[in-house]
Structures are given as C-alpha cells and as structure tokens.
Fold this sequence. Notes:
66 residues; alpha+beta; two-stranded antiparallel sheet; 1 helix; 7 strands
Amino acid sequence: MVVEFECRKCQQEFECEVGQVAVDEASLRAVFQKPIVCPRCGPRSIDDVYLTELGQSQLTEATWDH
C-alpha cells in the first residue's frame, strides 16, 4: 500500500510503499510492513514524518474494519 507522508526534517511531501498496514492495539498506532523512506533524508520513523491529509485518508481506508 502507498501512503503519502511529509518529512518533518525537509518538509517534502512524498509517497512511500509501506506494504501491509496493521494497528498496534496497545498504542493504537499504525505499524507498517516496510520502512518509511524519504527520498531526500532516507529511512524515517513514524515520529519523523507527518501524515498528509491524503495519507490520513489512505490509512483510514487501509485499516477500516469491513
């Protein structure tokens, strides 16, 4: 799955293939199968990026219980 992020370091928006998305039941945070990689800054943690508005929609759709 592709999710759009904004890097907190360079403020660049980018799309990243994160694989499957799960939700950590304890923290209620998204857990990605693949690492988040900013094209300018390299690998980033979930705390090093923001979800864009589109990214929030993508994540909601991916984790929606059907």
